[in-house]
Write a structure and sequence with these properties.
Layout lengths: L43 E18 L3 E16 L8 H14 L3 E8 L2 E10 L2 E9 L4 E9 L10 H11 L1 E4 L16 H13 L5 E6 L6 H23 L6 E7 L10 H7 L1 E6 L1
Parallel strand pairs: 8-9
Antiparallel strand pairs: 1-2, 2-6, 3-4, 4-5, 5-6, 7-10, 8-10
């Protein structure tokens, strides 16, 4: 259920419409409320919501492609109150698009498919970038998906000791503290602490040699993912050698692409688990 902190302190409240829901409106699902960026269409109540401290969503953008955005994630499904007017899908999406534009946002993509209207919006304001997808069919419900773009706060760390223990027990260790931009192989600064722990591991185990193996999810083509995984593994090796003085012959990069998933790729959570770097003892 939704918490109370969703982008409320970063983005000012925007009134979607001047009118408020009628006094006799049906109650919202327990614990749910509108996100701070938008109010709702009049005559609707919240049927279900989900508020994740960190999530990932693929937003449709121009050209039939999608853009993955990670950060604070909020989803809400609105149902029409009994007897309330049913706006068209275009009326719903157009209202949200106009509200976003009123605070300097933009419509990135909009289309109709099988009678269902879709619109992707982006609002960058006050240092925060918020993406939104509105899906409406002109029936009794519509859905809003929001992600406030931000890096994940890393709560779990893999230190040199735990890495060594995993390698001794299983021959490998999976790392999720090495970060790249979507579709790229440039290491992000958030990776520095994990790279330091790998260097500590190799210093403490002077005879240890490692395969540095990049893994991806299955989004995109196989050949592209295979190359991306190899490039990311090479980026890790290069950083360890150039920044931490690790001898190059102790590390061999390898790209496994999407060929060794640890979770099904049908969900965002599964794909996130499959995007990783593994250290494998040679």
């Amino acid at each position: 259920m939704a918490g109370k902190g969703m982008v409320r302190s970063l983005v000012p409240v925007v009134a979607l419409l001047l009118s408020l829901p009628a006094a006799g409106a049906e109650p919202d699902a327990e614990g749910c409320q509108d996100p701070a960026l938008f109010s709702r269409m009049p005559g609707f109540h919240i049927y279900r919501c989900e508020d994740l401290q960190f999530g990932r969503f693929e937003f449709p953008v121009a050209g039939g492609k999608t853009q993955a955005v990670e950060g604070r994630s909020f989803m809400v499904i609105y149902y029409a109150d009994e007897g309330a007017p049913r706006p068209s899908g275009l009326q719903v999406t157009r209202n949200y698009a106009n509200a976003a534009k009123a605070v300097g946002g933009q419509q990135l993509h909009g289309y109709e498919d099988g009678g269902i209207e879709y619109v992707t919006l982006k609002v960058a304001r006050g240092g925060a970038e918020t993406w939104a997808l509105v899906v409406a069919a002109g029936n009794d419900q519509y859905q809003l998906q929001l992600v406030e773009k931000q890096a994940m706060a890393q709560d779990v760390t893999a230190d040199a000791s735990s890495m060594a223990q995993s390698i001794r027990g299983t021959g490998k260790v999976a790392l999720y503290g090495i970060y790249f931009d979507t579709g790229k192989a440039s290491l992000k600064p958030e990776s520095d602490s994990s790279l330091l722990e790998i260097a500590k591991l190799l210093k403490a185990e002077p005879k240890l040699k490692l395969f540095v193996v990049g893994h991806t999810d299955n989004a995109g083509t196989f050949d592209k993912n295979l190359k991306l995984s190899r490039d990311r593994a090479e980026a890790v090796v290069k950083a360890l050698v150039s920044r931490h003085g690790v001898a190059a012959p102790r590390l061999q990069p390898f790209g496994a692409g999407p060929t060794a998933p640890v979770e099904p790729n049908q969900t965002d959570a599964g794909r996130a688990k499959n995007r990783r770097v593994e250290l494998v003892a040679q």
